[in-house]
Write a structure and sequence with these properties.
With 186 residues, the chain is an all-alpha fold. The protein has a domain at 128-176. It has helices at 7-25, 35-58, 69-73, 76-79, 91-106, 119-125, 130-146, 150-174, 181-184. Helix 7 packs antiparallel against helix 8. The radius of gyration is 38 Å and the shape is rod-shaped.
Length: 186
């Protein structure tokens, strides 16, 4: 168990077990893997990685102390990340989520959290007419003057009055002139 992560100690332990077993029983233990070849490949990969780190240091791309091989292969930041959220739908769902987050970050999409997702369908079906909106503005203006902080109420009332005037202006600009003949034709 002490040999975990150290191939040389593990090989020595396996060889010692093989010799002990062959001395007692006369049988040889055969291990089909080529551990020396794997160890050589691992050492070569580690050397290549550290050479790349040294090259980056020489090009002034790494500042300060060079990271160790263990720090490169198992960064502290990744150990503390915890569990990754599960994405149902596979790679497509992950790609869609990344696109959504990029759009939010760039300001293309504004994310709004709702308290109740069931209300989304109801709010889309509800529409308010311009006449209803004008009446609502009038009611709010009156309510502002009756309740609350006088300065805040005055500001809100003034804004509502401006908004109501804009709605009324749009009504007048979009109105059509009708003739009385349409009403009296039978």
């Amino acid at each position: 168990m002490d040999a975990e992560g150290d191939t040389e100690i593990a090989l020595n332990a396996v060889n010692a077990l093989a010799e002990a077993a062959s001395c007692r029983t006369g049988l040889k233990i055969r291990i089909p893997a080529c551990p020396q070849q794997a160890a050589d490949q691992l050492s070569s990969a580690e050397a290549d990685l550290m050479q790349s780190v040294n090259d980056l240091k020489a090009r002034n791309r790494i500042f300060g102390q060079l990271p160790t091989l263990d720090e490169l292969l198992d960064p502290v930041e990744e150990r503390d990340m915890g569990e990754f959220p599960a994405f149902e739908g596979g790679d497509k769902a992950i790609a869609d989520e990344v696109r959504r987050e990029v759009a939010i970050a760039s300001g293309e999409v504004i994310e709004i959290d709702s308290d109740d997702d069931d209300d989304d369908d109801d709010s889309a079906a509800v529409s308010i007419t311009r006449t209803d909106l004008l009446n609502l503005c009038r009611q709010l203006e009156v309510g502002c003057m009756q309740y609350g902080d006088p300065q805040f109420s005055l500001n809100l009332s003034s804004q509502l009055c401006t908004f109501r005037a804009q709605l009324r202006r749009e009504d007048l600009l979009n109105a059509r002139q009708t003739s009385l003949e349409q009403f009296f034709s039978v």
